[in-house]
Amino acid sequence: MAAEKMKVNAAAPPEEEEEEDLEDPMDKIRQECVEKHCANLVEKLNECSDRVSSRKKTSESCAEELIDLLHCRDHCAVKEIFKHVK
């Protein structure tokens, strides 16, 4: 049997088209809700966070403020998200 020589292509492979990163519409909707409808709760959470971080010994955790903010954000977003579902 004769040995066949393999042809090596030194050129780079053809470039594949770059796929666009898909954006989750929920991220944008949630951000808009936080900015437009829940700004007062963001302020309360920031105040709590500042207060807690300024103390060395405290049992306060700001969990209630965070839960209130997330509830507000998701309550607002649920009304909008189904407009984007196919």
SSE inventory with pairings:
Layout: H1 25-37, H2 39-53, H3 63-81
Membrane topology: Peripheral membrane protein
Keywords: Disulfide bond, Electron transport, Membrane, Mitochondrion, Mitochondrion inner membrane, Respiratory chain, Transport
Biased composition (Acidic residues): 14-24
Brief digest:
With 86 residues, the chain is mostly helical.
What is the tally of helical segments? 3
What series of H and E elements makes up the topology?
A: HHH
Strand content is under 5%
- The radius of gyration is 26 Å
Report the strand count.
Answer: 0
Q: Portion of residues in helices?
A: 40-55%
Helix/strand class? mainly alpha
Protein name: Cytochrome b-c1 complex subunit 6
Subcellular location: Mitochondrion inner membrane
InterPro entries: Cyt_b-c1_6, Ubol_cytC_Rdtase_hinge_dom, Ubol_cytC_Rdtase_hinge_dom_sf
Region (Disordered): 1-25
Protein architecture, described:
By secondary structure, this protein is an all-alpha fold. The chain has helices spanning 25-37, 39-53, 63-81. Helix 1 (25-37) crosses helix 3 and helix 2 (39-53) packs antiparallel against helix 3 (63-81). The protein starts with 24 loop residues before the first helix and ends in a 5-residue tail after the last helix. This is Cytochrome b-c1 complex subunit 6. It comes from Argiope bruennichi.
